Structure formats: structure tokens, C-alpha cells
Amino acid sequence: MKIGLIIFRADPARGGAEHYTIELAAALARRGHQVHLIASRFGNPVAGVQAIPITVDATTRTGRYLKFLDGLDAHLSTARYDIVHAMLPVRSCDIYHPHAGMAAAGIQTHLSRRTLPGRTAARLANRLNRKRQAYARVERQLLEDSQPPIVLCLSDYVKGSILRHYPPIGDRLVKLFNAVDLNKFDPSRISDTRQAMRDRWRIPADRVVALMIAQHFDRKGLPQVVDAAAQLKGALTVLVVGKDDPSASAQRARRLGIEDQIIFAGTTEAPADFYTAADFFVLPTRHDSCSLVVLEALAMGLPTISTIFNGACEIMTSGRHGFVLDDPGDVPALAQAIRQMLDPKNRDVMRPACLELRSELSFETHVNRLEQIYGGLAK
After folding, report:
1. pTM for this structure?
2. Which of 206, 242, 280, 343 is buried deepest, with most CB atoms within 10 A?
3. CA neighbor of 49 nearest in space, from 16, 27, 71
4. Domains along the sequence of the chain with CATH
5. Per residue in 210-230, pLDDT tens?
6. What is the DSSP string of 69-129?
7. What is d(CA 37, CA 52) in angstroms, rounded to the nearest whole number?
């Protein structure tokens, strides 16, 4: 089958959607498909996958996005694919796979669960963010077409969001829960890296470590994690991985007197090593369609704290695999959940429960299901 996978930047360092797209391209190529990765920018080459570059010579983010759409349309007018699978809003595709949730819902989420001054600032930001508005406009045209694409929903959380904005396309929604590479995220294979990682970041062997891997620190709840850590009076170290500028959170930690408890590690191409260094994972996000890092953490046997606004938590049972919080902004509740994680007896009970989820998180099972969807569309 000839498959066109569309992502704006095919660089796994950019985030979860990009990482997933690269992994999917490689998996489909290994299964004998002709995979073409269509993007404006690429990371390292992917074995067996042909890169199709789209030029985006514009000065603004919105301009680059619209140039990408123009170039994509030109390419699709001459190239023929059995399946066109897009990870972002485009003007035409067979499968739309919104990893960050619907663009229209994203505008609403940007306004929600904030203080009144925050909502006012967010409304202004939405009006000024032309790229966000362009995404929503293109998405609406795509889904209100007479023959809309199949929409892959990473979770029931995403599915509900789509139905609120586009109720007529209910019969075009297919749930495809996120998955992880169990060979890459296997604690039995890399267990010897724990001490090496702790030595690297000068973390004592007996110190409890909470790991957070995230892009967009504010939306994923890093300020709340810092505040919760301050309430626990030096009981743990928070190891933060991500490309965002950490200066605001670092200043917050200094103001609260816990700057020595927060380690900003920057980006990584080896997240599995960081999971081995940690005792539990924390991501009190305001919105995540189905956070891949949460699933990776669970596959590594790490008890996890996240929120009901994260589709990945649908696989968890709060109190068994970690804790699923009702309010991302409730710092006392977050601190209490972390306090429970500080007890090694609780972690010892939760860890094997998390590992039992591995069979449900298999990337191979995920790709099998996706091939079935492709096959139905190709017919």
C-alpha cells in the first residue's frame, strides 16, 4: 500500500505527534508499505521511508502553514496514494489524526480552567494568534465537507470533544488509542542505567525522584508541580525534561526556596533512560488528547499522576496505577498525591499494576488496527 503521512515538521524532538509519526512511518515501512513522509522539515532519515519536502518560504508561522498547504495540494495533485493520513488540519485527506485534539476545541481549551484575568488574556491571545485561527478554519472546512475524512480519536476524551464541535460526523470517528514501543520502553532491558542517570544529575541513590517530560510547561502543569514540591518541605527531587525555556519555573522555585530540588535537564533523545532514574511520573496537564509520555511511563512501571483532562488516563485506575486528579490547578490535591507516592510501599504496589498494562499499550497492536482502517478505506 502506498501511504502518504503528513506532518508539518518530521522531527521527533518537536513533540509527541512528531515522535509518533516517525515511529509509525518506520513501522509501516518494516511491514512492506511504500511510505512517503510529507513535511516542511525533517530530522534524521527513516529507513525505508521516502521524505517529501514541502517548501515554506514565509516569514510568519501562519504564512508558513498556508504555504505548506499550498505545496501539499500541489504535490497531491500529481502524486497518487492509496491512503493520505494527516496529523494536522489540511485541505484534503483520507484520515485526519489530530494528536493535540481538535483545533476548534484547542481554542476553547485555551480559555478554560484559568482565572478571569487569565481568560481575558487568553481571548486576546486567540485573536492575535493567526496560526491557531487558520488551523481551526482549515479543520472546519475539512470536516464540514460533503465527504469528510475518517477522524482517528486517540481517546474517548478526544471523541467527546469532536462531537461537541462537529456532531454530524459521529459515524466518521474511530478510536485508536495511543501506544508505545514496548521494546524501547522495557525496564528489564535498561535497569542498569538508573544509577548512571542519577550520578549524571547528582541525585542521591535514596532520593525520591518525580519525573516530568513535557512540551509547553505551563499547560502541562509545571508551575503546580513546583508549588506542590514546596509544600512537601524537601521530600523529593523533580526532574524536568523538555525544550521549553525553564526560567519562569526556575524563578518560581527560587522564590519558594526549593531551587535545589528542581532539575531542568533540557531535551533528550533517550527518554527511557530518564524513566529508569525516576520513582514516579507527574503531568498535571490542563489538556492532553492522549499523552504519550504517560503511556511510556506506565509501560516502564512508573506510577503516574495526571488529570481527567488527559485521554491517556482512561487506561488507568486512580489509586492503582497512580492518581488521576479532577482539577489541574488544585495544588493541595497534587501535593497529597505526591505525598502518597513518597511512600515506597505504595510505589511497590503500584509498579507491578502499571507493568500489567503493557499488553494493552503495544505499538504492534496499534499498527495492526491502523492497517485494518487503511484496508477498509482502500476498498
Report:
1. 0.81
2. 280
3. 27
4. 2-179+362-378 (3.40.50.2000), 193-361 (3.40.50.2000)
5. 999 998 999 999 999 999 999
6. HHHHHHHHHH---SEEEESS--SS-SEE--TT--HHHHHHHHHSSS-HHHHHHHHHHHHH-
7. 6
